């Protein structure tokens, strides 16, 4: 990130001095165990934060874990908001949210993928805890609001969310209210009662007011705590208390301004100037205040103001960081503008310089922008761009750049190009073209020699990405080719990016040989640039192409090379390491090595999604779905595909294996042919379509459905339609050198001829398929076709042309057929690594209604020990939450076994 996270935003504020205890509110909050959402909504100055901190102190004392996040306007960047939220969760439970955060920081993050991963992590937590979002009213970003609404709708029971806000958030409050999941604390609840007002005025402030005077103040303020606090400060040392009370009316914001002004006037000049000058700061500490005021009394002054209850709030236990009460800060800033307007820019400049020296570039940018020093702001943004890109904070970068004068961006084309890149990375196309045109205009009017080609090359790269985003493959290829001709030979990162974009274009067009060569060039350049994780991303593309070309051995070698690269960097788990294991698992599955495939997928899962690239959550679930299907667990397989579809991230890669088509294939294999044919109709796929590489997988799926329809009962010569479609697909795949696809098509052609009682044609197609498949060790294309393929293999064997390979395929087919027939009996424990006896005990309790603390007490272990057992169980079962672990255990017969052993 361009600057460290502010720890003070994650600190639960300590009890304030002079606190009036309010057990009626604390008890109400404590008794809200059944409510997953607590909303504390009231205008400023009603003591929302104070009430929550009192309650949380009690909750913490009783063992509840608490996560706290104080929000401000700058958190309207979705990436920054969710990063802070995960950081708050990590404070409550070490490591919680790490996988989700890795998903968020991926080169092309999807908020849906992030939220799904986060919810799964929350679901895995074994005890309940509290997350507080304070000052949520500042959140105006629609993406943040929609994301939080999704989180609230799917909130696991382990998490109780508390939102403190001046206005009701954009959440489904009526639905939550009707379900009994919402507790609301509003202004009417927060107002001081007469008893609480008396405790404050006489007990805390020592004013010795009569009951009638307190009632008058409380009634006129209508319980508004901030106004009562200011009134108390105004009355201290005043002789005519009765006169003050008679003229007091605290129900108006202007009265608050008046009272705050009066409190300000009662301070000596040093304190008053300090308050005014430091009011520009969102957070204060001694050295920062010294830098702004030019004095050296900051720390002592803050401590003195804190002791005097002058609306300053400590933000940490050491009382090092503070902030002013929001309303008080507003009054101070208004007074500063009235009295010292010419000093404001200088004060912001001093604050900006201090933050820059202390490594907080975002805060430095905020102050330079507030001081309207736009040249300095532009300098700082240019300094921050690499880090902002790395941490995926494009929304913040866009907001900064949007705030700069347009002529300044036009004069700094690097900023314009960065602006375009930030928009593209955020999935926003509006404004991209304008920014790139401005940069192109600057380049065209620059004197000869003013541009060395790097800027022009960067523009061309973003033009290529822009074209891919709108489906203009030809345009993307033109721009990527232009970029390769512009960027310097030693600019390996840019050359790698351009080669990769050009490779995607050829890949999308089905020109796999050319695409493979360009991806290889990209890989080499990224290796020279030292971008090792990006090299692993290239490896995925290279292996995918080789698999389609029918070169499984080469694909396996690519993944193995990737793991060697990762092994050379053990100190920093390279993003992409997990993807190498997923790829190897899918290849082993194709070769019929089911248990070895599952082991690689479990290894990928144990590494965590922080060791994976953006597509890893999607690809790993697709692979696990195929493993579960091979084991006959169609329900679990379809669940994995549904989650994969939700988590899909394209990275501009062509979507040649759509999840919807994979689901249709699973339907076909389990007798749901009508569902698969309905999918084809809705997708607009027919047997007479013009063929293309991008739709090849879908057309093959349709051919499978037509063959299955014939099996269910002939309908309009569906097998004839399938045969004609397969014949066209086969010619196209052979012409494109897609040998892996050719093997699948020949297998299906053999089955089609068998249905037509053309035994000669069936065996001829099968023999060709076997000849192509044997060198690479294909198994699943044959075995997954069931008894019909087993009969064909038997016939091939009787013909006298069977090899050891055919015998192995035949034996595998027989084994699978027996397994399918025996599936009605409880399955044995088919795990790469069996569960220990203790883990079986934990598993049995996970299937009960007990929550985490109850399970820990039952087993006489700590919650941390229980979490360790639970994590191991999930990894061994290939599950990512409690429900899926129990379902998987039931499928394997583990729960019945553990009950029998009791």
UniProtKB/TrEMBL annotation:
Pfam families listed in its UniProt record: GerE (PF00196), TPR_MalT (PF17874), WHD_MalT (PF25873)
Keywords, sorted A to Z: DNA-binding, Transcription, Transcription regulation
Residues covered by the HTH luxR-type domain: 828-893
PANTHER family linked to this entry: DNA-BINDING TRANSCRIPTIONAL ACTIVATOR DEVR_DOSR (PTHR44688:SF16)
Listed name of the protein: LuxR C-terminal-related transcriptional regulator
Provenance organism: Arthrobacter gyeryongensis
